[in-house]
Amino acid sequence: MTTPTAVRDMKIISTIKQMQSYSMETKRSGQRIALVPTMGSLHEGHLSLIKRARELADIIVVSIFVNPTQFAPDEDLINYPRNFDYDCELCEKHGVDVIFAPPVSEMYAGNHSVWVSEEQLSQTLCGRSRPGHFRGVTTVVAKLFNITLPNYAIFGQKDAQQALIIKKITRDLNFPLEIIISPIIREPNGLAMSSRNRYLSRDAKQAASVIYRELKAAKDRLKINGVNKIDSIVEGISHAIRAEGGIIDYVKALDADNLKAISPSTQIILLAVAVKFEKARLIDNVLVYLPTT
Ligand code: AMP
User: What backbone phi and psi angles, to 5 degrees, belong to 158?
Assistant: First the structure.
């Protein structure tokens, strides 16, 4: 067994066996673990999750793993931005205790044939446009939970549908941990931070700021007018994004609790967008709390 590489105090662990031993030992000593799962190429959005983890637990584990099973063959797996050395520096600077960075062959050894799949919430939005995506996500997240044994796992509201699905598998499969959802961190122009923003030219980054501008304006309109004009509000968002050169995958308003159509019992609306600017598929969302009558 190789010993974990240490960058000052931070450990970099790449095998499942070592990670599990470390986590078991940590928990035996009475310390709590918070896991921040990422695909690397870290930015301020990821760092905000790490800060939240620090508030909750004694030991922070950041996983860095570009999970091949959540990419379709025609997606950007090969070109997905990777920046491991810089990620390590950032993590160390922000007090991360362990980076868990396994190779693909470690996570999907040999004849891997067991999958975790959620079958309701993943039928819409990104699940519809990216068949198989959430099965890859839920499988790798379940594996990460079993490997790192966290008390808390921190995810971003940026991936709103993913957050709901992870909460659901945690409940339905009885993982003994708490899921924490952290707010969206944005660029100064409002664009939600994303590793994929690196694909964008300066002009496209500016044009893509229309997404959040429109979501915010729609949220204000919904708060004033209620859901009566929801269809025209959604159409207005699409129109404005197209006018800036975005190619719409979806713009949808759904019940934020169950991702079903808005109904009289809806209390919170999820307004969610997926759109392509240049080579980048960008997602963003806002939550609208409807006034109680
Ligand atoms: P990724 O590396 O893109 O898979 O993201 C890892 C985690 O960071 C996920 O839980 C994301 O929701 C979260 N995340 C990504 N971008 C942001 C952001 N701009 N604000 C907050 N959380 C984010």
Answer: -50, -40
Other beta carbons within 10 angstroms of residue 291's beta carbon come to: 8
The structure tokens listed for 106 are 């470690």
What pTM was estimated for this model as a whole?
A: 0.96
Catalytic hit among 46, 94, 133, 239: 46
The count of other CB atoms within 10 Å of the CB of residue 254 is 20
- pLDDT of 6 over the 50 cut: no
Q: Is 46 a catalytic residue?
A: yes
The CA 44 to ligand 1 mean position distance, Å, reads 9
Average pLDDT of the residues of the chain: 95
| Ligand 1 binding pocket includes 87 (Cβ within 6 Å) | no
Among residues 223, 246, 250, 224, the alpha carbon closest in space to that of 235 is found at 250
Q: What are the residue ranges of helices labelled H in 150-285?
A: 160-172, 202-207, 210-225, 230-243
Smallest CA-to-CA distance from 58 within 87, 5, 95, 90 is with 95
- How far from chain centre, in Å, is Cα 182? 10
What is the rounded average pLDDT of the residues 187-212?
97
Which one, of 117, 60, 56, 143, lies nearest residue 94 by Cα? 60
Return d(Cα 233, Cα 240) in angstroms, integer: 11
CA 262 to mean position of chain CA atoms = 24
Give the dihedral sign, CA 240/242/245/248.
positive
Contact 53, 152 (CB under 8 A): yes
Say if residue 220's pLDDT is above 90. Answer: yes
How remote is the CA of residue 119 from the centroid of ligand 1, in Å?
23
222-278, pLDDT tens digit by residue? Answer: 988 888 889 999 999 999 999 999 999 999 999 999 999 999 999 999 999 999 999
- On whether the CB atoms of residues 258 and 161 are closer than 8 A, the answer is no
Mean pLDDT computed over 176-191: 98
